[in-house]
Amino acid sequence: MNTTPPFMGMVQPEADRASRLEAAHKRISNAVAYGLMVYTGLQIFLTMRALEVADNSLLPMVGLVVLVGAIIPLYRRLEKQWDATAARLADDPPALAAALTRARLTIWAISIGLPLLVTVLVAALVSVVAG
After folding, report:
1. Whole-number Å distance between alpha carbons of 94 and 100
2. Predicted model pTM
3. What dihedral angle (degrees, nearest 10) is formed by the CA atoms of 106, 109, 112, 116?
């Protein structure tokens, strides 16, 4: 006699889906947190150093607060966008893994590339103003 209640086999795939979504959210949240730390560190050591050469005032610290404050909404948007993507792809683990890799690469490209770009722009601006 079969002791499994009807539709009980459907509970497992839904639990697997929920665990995949939770794991994917945790991985992208960790990538965002680490990316924000790297972004802030690069801003401190690269951009602030370029600003300090030009001026010894409070401007570099205000600039740092603005630059870090401006990036947080972008990271939040990426995280929310990822949650929607993960929900759409949760039933296709290979596609979910590929999307996770792309999202993490995007986060790291922003975290590393944006401070470098800002530093180049600040250095160019300082050289033009100092003339």
Report:
1. 10
2. 0.78
3. -130
